Every structure is written in C-alpha cells, then in structure tokens.
Amino acid sequence: MTDWVFAATMADLPPDGWREVDIDNTAILVINNKGNVYAIENLCTHDGGTLAEGFVEGDDVVCPRHGAKFCIKTGAVTAPPAYEAIKTFPVKIEDGKIFIALV
C-alpha cells in the first residue's frame, strides 16, 4: 500500500509556480507546469545544488549553478554537466490538496 503525504494545496502552487517541501528528510520540489503537477528531487546530481533556485524551461528544470537540465516528468538528464537522473515521485490531487508518495 502506498503512503501518501500531504505536500501543499493547489492554492499554494500557482500556474507555472513551484514550492519546496521536505518530507521525511527528503528535499522535494513540487512544480505546477501548465496545470500538471510534478514532484522531483530538489537536488542537482552534478554538484548537489538546489533546483528550486533555478527555473522551468518547457518540461525541464534548469539548475542555476551550471545549467544542467532535468525532465520534470521522468527525472532524466536532458543537458549536462549532470549525467545521473534525479528522482521523481508520484503525485495525486484530491479536493485541491497535493499528496506525494515516497516510493
């Protein structure tokens, strides 16, 4: 059984906005990209920088330190200098509340 943890409300996450959350000592970036909500690890695999200080470009989040890009849907690296993917987390929305599963 999947344990879902409350992360934010949709009111906390405006269109094309994001929010940093910490769930069980895991830094997560929750992103509202064109009305779709994604949850990704908030840590660049290149040098450990926080992705929340970067920006979203299409379906990618861009690390502000060296420009590495990660797909917010899959966590895959889409541009170096990073070569290791980031984690993604399942998201569900119920009654305007966003829940994340740490699987």
Compact description:
The chain has 103 residues and is mainly β. It is built from no helices and 11 strands. 0% of the residues lie in helices and 48% in strands.
Overview of the structural elements:
The chain is mainly beta and 103 residues long. Helices cover 0% and strands 48% of the residues. It has no helices and 11 strands. The strands form 3 sheets. The chain has a 4-stranded antiparallel beta sheet, with no helix packed on it. It has a 4-stranded antiparallel beta sheet with strand order 5-6-7-8, with no helix packed on it. A hairpin with a 2-residue loop joins strand 5 (55-57) and strand 6 (60-62).
List the helices and strands and how they pair.
Layout lengths: L3 E6 L8 E6 L2 E8 L2 E6 L13 E3 L2 E3 L6 E3 L5 E3 L8 E2 L1 E4 L2 E5 L2
Keywords:
48% strand, four-stranded antiparallel beta sheet, 103 residues, mainly beta
Content-based structural category: mainly beta
Tell me the series of helices and strands, N- to C-terminal.
EEEEEEEEEEE
Beta-strand portion reads over 45%
- Show unreliable segments: none
